[in-house]
Design a protein that fits this description.
Length: 196
């Protein structure tokens, strides 16, 4: 596969369709973590943003592109969310919340003795900060959800591929370990094809 300037390895289509088992066995661990999972990238570029509501198709395509680039450049969830802030807006419920926030603060500031002009300017500044906070929250939520969904899809298809190559026993199970601050680990097992 091609090695990008960032050190990321982009697999060839042949590597994805018929993985070279020797590559994974002989590859140093530090390079394996720089390997781009083409399945995650493909999923992100074709199927991400399906859960995002209250956006038009052009925004959906823009979100897909940003999520896909998160795998090839690579970007963290926070960096991806920062890019998404310039793309997404508020959905109707949060837009109404911003409007109510402005009205409530305007009334409060006038009651506290501010002139209506000064109260409006102050309320507008407060409202703009609140609006940006909600957009930041929505962008983070979208980035986190979409990246995780693409990673889960790639992980699942990788398990299926290793099983079909005979590298994993079909009876294998995944194990999730959870712990509360006051207890020991609890173990939960399920077949590989199940999602946690």
């Amino acid at each position: 596969g091609e090695v990008l300037p960032s050190g990321i390895i982009v697999p060839t289509p042949e590597m994805v369709e018929a993985p070279d088992v020797e590559f994974f066995i002989n590859e140093p661990v530090e390079r394996m973590f720089r390997f781009v999972n083409q399945r995650a990238t493909d999923y992100a570029s074709t199927r991400s943003a399906t859960l995002v509501r209250q956006i038009d198709e052009s925004n959906r395509l823009a979100i897909r592109e940003v999520i896909s680039r998160a795998f090839t450049e690579p970007r963290s969830v926070d960096e991806t969310a920062r890019v998404l802030r310039h793309i997404v807006g508020l959905h109707p419920r949060w837009a109404r919340a911003v409007e109510r926030f402005n009205e409530k603060n305007l009334v409060r500031l006038v009651r506290e003795g501010m002139s209506s002009r000064q109260a409006q300017q102050t309320a507008d500044r407060m409202t703009e900060r609140y609006r940006k906070k909600l957009i930041r929250r929505r962008a983070e939520m979208i980035a986190r959800t979409e990246i995780q969904q693409a990673q889960n899809y790639a992980r699942q298809t990788s398990w299926e591929a290793t099983e079909s190559l005979g590298l994993v026993d079909p009876r294998s199970e995944k194990e999730l370990r959870t712990a509360l601050a006051t207890s020991a680990f609890e173990r939960h097992s399920c077949p590989v094809e199940w999602c946690f």
